[in-house]
Amino acid sequence: RDFQTFLRTEGNESFAIATLLFMIMLPGKAPYAHQGSGDISGAIQRMEFPYPCSGHFSTHTPDGSWRFLWSYLPRYLKEYFYHTFQNGGRYSTERSRLTAEQWLRAFQSYFLLLDSGKLQAQDPESGKIFPTWWKIADQIGQAVFEQRRCVQCRETFDITLNERSLFLQRGHLLPTRCPACRRLRRLEQAGLNGIA
């Protein structure tokens, strides 16, 4: 539709923000650009997101560095993008879109992971703009043990088998906050909440 003919809603603007963030993280690639599919307008209308997430697979993920870039995004960012752009996703309707504040919180958490060097310590490619191979992951340990709703932001999040084992080994209860809210809470407790 011609944008001059109607007033855009917050949901419209939130979708535009999600699209911009996706194209920054996968430089220049639109969310619905498919491998071997020339009909991008049809993919947009059907909301066929071509990237895999949490057990959802696609044979249309663009070849080359796009697959590698996607593999290095943190799981919560992949879920945010997937559920925004995939038909039937939690954030795929105009009224359920993630807000700019929710995206900001998620990317602040990602920034902390990159800035601390934790991701690069696990795999040096994770700090590159264009990685040259897939992220190395423990597929069994990444299986979902339980899904919960964050007590702070109210978003759902997964606890993997690896995370469950880690919390139990350390004598901790399973978390009630999502990874993004946990990281921001630690940052606030350390008095470092000025990241923008």
Write up what this structure looks like.
The chain has 196 residues and is mainly alpha-helical. Helices cover 43% and strands 6% of the residues. It has eight helices and two strands. A hairpin with a 6-residue loop joins strand 1 and strand 2. Helix 5 packs across helix 8.
What low-confidence regions span 5 or more consecutive residues with pLDDT below 50? none
Number of strands: 2
Oligomer: single chain
Q: Helix-strand pattern, N to C? A: HHHHHHEEHH
| Mean pLDDT across all amino acids | 84
Gyration radius (Cα, Å) is 17 Å
How many strands, what sense, and barrel or not for the largest sheet?
2 strands, antiparallel
Structural class: mainly alpha
- Record the strand order, biggest sheet: 1-2
Strand percentage lies at 5-15%
Report how far the terminal alpha carbons are from each other. 34 Å
Number of helices: 8
Shape: globular
Q: Helix fraction?
A: 40-55%
List keywords for this structure.
mainly alpha, 196 residues, 8 helices, 43% helix, globular
Briefly say what this structure is:
By secondary structure, this protein is mainly α. Helix content is 43%, strand content 6%.
Task: Write the topology of this structure.
Elements: H1 10-25, H2 40-46, H3 65-72, H4 75-85, H5 100-116, H6 118-122, E1 144-149, E2 156-160, H7 161-169, H8 179-189
Antiparallel strand pairs: 1-2
